[in-house]
Amino acid sequence: MGSRAAYVYVAPFFIIFAAMGLYPFLYTAWVSLHKVSLAKPNAMSWVGFANYSHLWSNHFFLNALKNTFTIGVISTVPQLLIALGVAHMLNYTMRWRTFFRVALILPYATSVAAATLVFSQIYSQQYGLANWVTGLFGVHNIDWLNNKWASQTAISTIVTWRWVGYNALIYLAGMQAIPGDLYESAVIDGASRWQQFRFVTLPGLRPTILFTVIISTIGATQLFAEPLLYGSGKPNGGGLNQFQTLGLLMYQQGWANRNLGLAATTAWTIFLLIVVLVLVNVFVMRRITRESKG
Amino acid sequence: MAAMTTTAPAVRRSRSGRSGQAGGQQRAGKFTYFLIAIITLLSIFPLYWTLVSGSHTNAQMAETPPPFVPTGDFFHNLSMAMQRQDLWRALLNSTIVATVVAVSNVLFCTLAGFAFAKLRFRGSNVLLMLVVGTLMVPLQVGIVPLFMLAAKYHMIGHLQAAIAPYLVSAFGVFLLRQYLIAALPTELVEAGWVDGASTFRIFRSIVLPIARPAMAVLAMFQFLMAWNDFFWPILVLNNRNPTVQVALNGMGTGYIPQTAVVMAATFFVTVPVLVAFGFLGKQIVGGIMQGAVKG
Q1: Selected residues 132-191 of chain A with any CB under 8 Å from a CB in chain B
Q2: Chain B CB within 8 Å of residue A51 CB
Q3: How far apart are CA B22 and CA B12, in angstroms?
Q4: Is residue B15 situated within a structural domain?
Q5: Among the partner residues B112, B136, B282, nearest to A9 by beta-carbon distance
Q6: Which residues of A touch B45 (CB under 8 A)?
Q7: pLDDT by residue for chain A (294 residues), tens digit each?
Q8: How far apart are CA A117 and CA B18, in angstroms?
Q9: Which domain holds residue B163?
């Protein structure tokens, strides 16, 4: 039924989607095989895989890849663990529950630019709050900008701050979808609160957890605004590129060094990275599921 | 994806839950209140700190202990910021961009989502796979060709450039499709056909009223996404015609001796978001929990 009409319904979407979604995505691969300058973005000359061999043996690329990975891990893992704990707490009946939930997603609604500017102030070496707090514990003058691990930790806290509440709400929605009688029978079997969490809540949340892991992983490969503004808008990610991510490197290649072909190569590499990471996530999750069942 | 089960679980819960014994329904203890209060405080504090550091000089912020209360100097610093960046214009531009993006997404994605949910047509499986397959591909991957397009059609510096790539989203089609499969009874559509209603009539009188909650969730997501988007707008817009994020990028990039000026600007452009949350917070929380998928 409605066969003809259906095309009218999907046509507006697909026309725009083809032009603004599919075409740029596929054309990136084509551009990456060319030399293209920002000065003349529509004059391309064929170079084959030269951009790839240049990029993949490039010190800056390997550095950005490593930084993206480390910042990704130290922002995603605590973020999701805290979110899980917060969701567990929100799942109790409590007073002011709406207030807590709204307050917890304020960071999600705060723009990444605003958040990064505030955190840059907090981590400022001379007049930042962070060093005052660590000073109370006897640790003075941490260089949150130039020290590699300190700067990466600082950037991770921005990401974590923005996304904990959002992920907590997703977990909470997942928890509320777990049938209550599963908990009832667990209680009858004498399960403690921790055992209920471990053997009822966690297995029930597995698809939700996989979803948040994949979304956060993709987000981590895209990290851009935080390292850019944390370094006062410079695309090098700190004097020694100590927090330059792949997203930032791409921006530097394309819009500071005016080499759009190389930027497209980095973009396509990021896409391949995402595919690999998603497959790894799915595979690991399957393994865990199978082990806990057998 | 997995978490897409929209309203069904919430309904089931309110019927079977709240009886006291189920795991999720236990009362919070004092320790839980304590922890959740701390987390809430940490969530709000950086926003408050923007206000505090927006009203003190660098020297004042360097004191031990630092000041913890905002002062009237905030407005002085804000007017300094206004001299550097047209923040009102930025707010207006962001509102335009985010509104157009939200409306366009709701319109086109609801149309397509309905077709995929309830109409049978040749090629629908292939087209749907195309949509689902690109759900996970971020815009950043296609940013170079998008920029080349914007340059080719002389859109750099104009709001159209910031809007165009976000007019539709695979996420929106998927969200609406999943929602309508569950919420829209096929018999209702069939009854419409039998009564001789046109597909357009069915869409307007049957589908739209039922789809409204999912449309609201989509509008909220896309508005917020467009408002907060950073990478693309800083490529195609500049300080003469900025959105909020472009203006903030300008503030954070140039050398400004007093950080308070940057912080005052940051707080000023964040206030509308906070006010919106004051009014719509409950709905937004519900939207995230029902949608449970990000684009």
Answers
A1: 132, 135, 161, 164-166, 169-170, 172-184, 186-187
A2: no
A3: 13
A4: no
A5: B112
A6: none
A7: 557 788 999 999 999 999 999 999 999 999 999 999 999 988 899 999 999 999 999 999 999 999 999 999 999 999 999 999 999 999 988 899 889 999 999 999 999 999 999 999 999 988 789 999 999 999 988 999 999 999 999 999 999 999 999 999 999 999 999 998 999 999 999 998 889 988 999 999 999 999 999 999 999 999 999 999 999 999 999 999 999 999 999 999 999 999 999 999 999 999 999 999 999 999 998 888 887 765
A8: 43
A9: 30-291
For residues B24 and A176, give the distance between their C-alpha atoms in angstroms, rounded to a whole number: 7
Q: Which of B239, B265, B240, B79 is nearest to A117 (CA)?
A: B265
Is residue B121 assigned to a domain? yes
Ordered domains of chain A (ranges, CATH): 51-293 (1.10.3720.10)
A41/B285 Cβ within 8 A: no
- A to B CB pairs, distance under 8 Å: 366
Q: What are the angstrom distances between the C-alpha of A246 and each of A71, A118, A120, B225?
A: 11, 23, 21, 21
Sign of CA dihedral B121, B123, B128, B131: negative
Is the bond preceding A203 in cis, omega lying within 30 degrees of 0?
no
Angle between helices B73-84 and B259-291 (to 10 degrees): 90
**Residues of chain A contacting residue B228, judged by C-beta atoms under 8 Å apart:** 109-113
In a domain, B65, yes or no: yes
- How many residues in chain B? 295
pLDDT of residue B257: 78
Nearest chain A alpha carbon to B49: A118
Interatomic CA distance for residues B138 and A270, integer angstroms: 10
Can you give the pLDDT at residue B155? 95
Number of domains in chain B: 1
Is residue B10 in a domain? no
Q: Are residues A5 and B164, on separate chains, in Cβ contact within 8 Å?
A: no
DSSP for A219-254? HHHT--HHHHHHTTT-TTSSTT-TT--HHHHHHIII
* Neighbouring-strand partners of residue A46: A34
Q: At what angle do helices A3-17 and B124-133 cross, to 10 degrees?
A: 30
Could you give the angle at the alpha carbon of A79 between the alpha carbons of A78 and A82, nearest 5°? Answer: 75
Q: For residue A175, which residues of chain B lie inside 8 Å, CB to CB?
A: 24
Contact A172 B22 (CB under 8 A): no
